[in-house]
Amino acid sequence: MAQRLALQRLLALPARGPLASHGRAFGTSAGRRSTFNVQDGSDFQDRVVNSPKPVVVDFHAQWCGPCKILGPRLEKLVAKQEGKVLMAKVDIDDHTDLAIEYEVSAVPTVLAMKNGDVVDKFVGIKDEDQLEAFLKKLIGA
After folding, report:
1. pTM, entire model
2. Selected catalytic residue, list 67, 74, 85, 138
3. Is the pLDDT of residue 30 over 60?
4. Is the N or C terminus of the chain more exposed, i.e. has fewer CB atoms within 10 Å?
């Protein structure tokens, strides 16, 4: 009984307010539509490499403290771009092959991709002004 109750609580978390934007939760609010979690290599190919829009790729890990700060900050700024740019989140523990392919040696690593090519990148945490400049450069604004 206790296990079932714990499972019900866990499954209910993504639907709850501020918790929906953390971790691996899937939300449907307007701000979340431009951000998605990469499911596998083929999903990455379809939604990132073949994307007609520029894509910010956030390589992160659940155990990474700076990732927990950068991720929500970056998501918020991507949402403010009103669909001009997408954000793909790649957990390096789940998708080691992608991390190796894109030469990710530390997390967080953020790539800016346009037409399937990496056009810019940074490693580590950035403040909002630096992230806005990074996005504007990618979008061409």
Report:
1. 0.77
2. 67
3. no
4. N
